[in-house]
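S1.2 Input.
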Amino acid sequence: MPTPIDRRTLLSALLAAAIANPVTGAARPSHPTKILFVCQYGSVKSPIARELLKRRAAQLGIKVDVRARGITPERHLPEETRRSLASEGIDPTAEPLRQLAAADIERADMVIFFDKLPPGYVPKHSRDWTDLPSIVNDYRAARLSLDQRIDRLLNELSPGR
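S1.3 Output.
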């Protein structure tokens, strides 16, 4: 049976690891944190979030590997929304549209989903962002909410900020 000192030492080590990297609970890895965004079609919420996170992480010097996938991939971005995004320098088509695969889930340190994941897709760590407003129907509210969530995520990835 461990002595009280051993328990305190163990708890201190666990707390230090959680503070070092709250996303994975481990010491900060030397490789970029792998974030996967998933939405129904893979052409609106997840690629927009991918591009916003990549841009902000680069500005802050935070290493991330960000990908976007669709559960049932389909081009679903209206021209008006595309123009709004382009005016902000955001191109959700910067990377090819890809269907979610089990390997994507296994590879990711964190999966952030905007729509319920298919049965059998169980990420190690995930965030449920299904309550994000529709980007197509309410761009302003959706962007505000998405920006706030991305800022919180970046704060977690870089606790020293």
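S1.4 Remarks. The radius of gyration is 18 Å.
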